Amino acid sequence: MVLEEMQLTEENTRLRFLVCSLIKEIAAAYFPECSIRPFGSTVNNFGKMGCDLDMFLDLDGISGRNKTKPGGAFSVEYQTKRVASERVATQSILSVIGECIDQFAPGCTGMQKILNARCPLVRFSHQPSGFQCDLTANNRIAMRSTELLYIYSTLDPRVRALVFGIRCWARVQGITSSVPGAWITNFSLTMMVLFLLQRRNPPIIPTLDQLKAQAAEKDVHIIESHDCTFASDYKMKSSQNTETLEDLLQEFFEFYGSFAFNKMSINIRKGKEQNKPEPSPLHIQNPFEQALNVSKNVNQTQLDRFVRAARESAWILQQEGLKHPKANPWGFSALLLPNSQTSMGKSKKRRRQPASERIKNLLDSLKANKQSTDNLSRPNGHQKIIPIVR
């Protein structure tokens, strides 16, 4: 299965935490009681082999910043100079830590200081593990987003499977890219999958407002005036929805192939479409910073590309049939055929094609990526390969 082939292994996850501990040793030279915490794909249950390692420099635990005073007769308090704003302080801290990583951290190369971004960060490669690393500070809303996605991933096994399937499809169709640009991101695709599952009848997962309604006092989080509250131990009864993954895959393509992107916004907090507050081609409301559009980078060309691919894929699944294969490839593998985009908008009477080299290359790429990463984390370098298409 795609999920089994692409998901992070336990060994790879442990290696990511090890890299965090190595970076902490560098940061501790300036902030002895700081911590480095992974967030994003590494820990939200949607990470795939080869994904970036996002790290958060947490300074709130150091003496003088936390609310509880350390025990003992003596304590040391660390203070910083007065600066114009917290953003300026964050930029200065990341600049200094980035310089130390570049100069003294073994195996860390290609340091980039991206300090003028909306969320300042430093980016570098950790060569021994092969990870592309992003280090940020003062980014607690991203931490809450990570926790929210993890909770959604545990509510129903179809959530993770559908997200991985859609991401794999988007990669083959050229909808997503590892290069920054006007592409639809994996995070935006995940939001779109969650929104679809909230709208099924009956719903498969709750809305964010429903999670908030079940929150206990310990779950209340207000970060920079943004309400990031939701139940951390949400107990959901088994969904009455019995749709299969094949059904949901078809519904995803049909739903977004005809979605009114020109006037409607996607909102997982409410679980329903809303009028777009801005003219961006694709508008997906940030679940916590509700004035932000997480897909603001997407241009009309890339959105049109996604819509055409969704419509083409919906038609392929209708023709091929997921449960009664009559040819090879069939079902989900049929969506990985080459030239599917060049045929969009042309005659729907398309000839069945033999198993494509593109499918084979995709599988080989996934297996090679997984094997190379496992070899770094396993002494013997052996692994079990689980084919996606049988």
Task: Give a nutshell description of this structure.
By secondary structure, the protein is an alpha+beta fold. The chain is built from 10 helices and 9 strands.
Describe, in plain words, how this protein is organized in 3D.
The protein has 390 residues and is an alpha+beta fold. Helix content is 38%, strand content 10%. The chain is built from ten helices and nine strands. The strands form three sheets. The chain has a five-stranded mixed β-sheet with strand order 1-2-5-4-3, with helices on both faces. The chain has a two-stranded antiparallel ribbon with strand order 6-7. Strand 3 and strand 4 form a beta hairpin. Helix 4 crosses helix 5, helix 5 crosses helix 6 and helix 8 crosses helix 9. The longest helix is centred in the last third of the chain and has 21 residues. The chain is globular, with a radius of gyration of 23 Å. The C terminus is likely disordered.
SSE order: HHEEHEEEHHHHEEHEEHH
Shape: globular
Tell me about the largest β-sheet.
Answer: 5 strands, mixed
Helix content: 25-40%
Query: What is the overall pLDDT average?
Result: 82
Structure class? alpha+beta
Largest beta sheet: strand ordering: 1-2-5-4-3
Strand-residue fraction?
5-15%
Identify low-pLDDT runs: 63-69, 339-356, 381-390
Q: What's the alpha carbon Rg, rounded to whole Å?
A: 23 Å
Number of helices: 10
The separation of the N and C termini measures 9 Å
Report the count of strand segments.
9
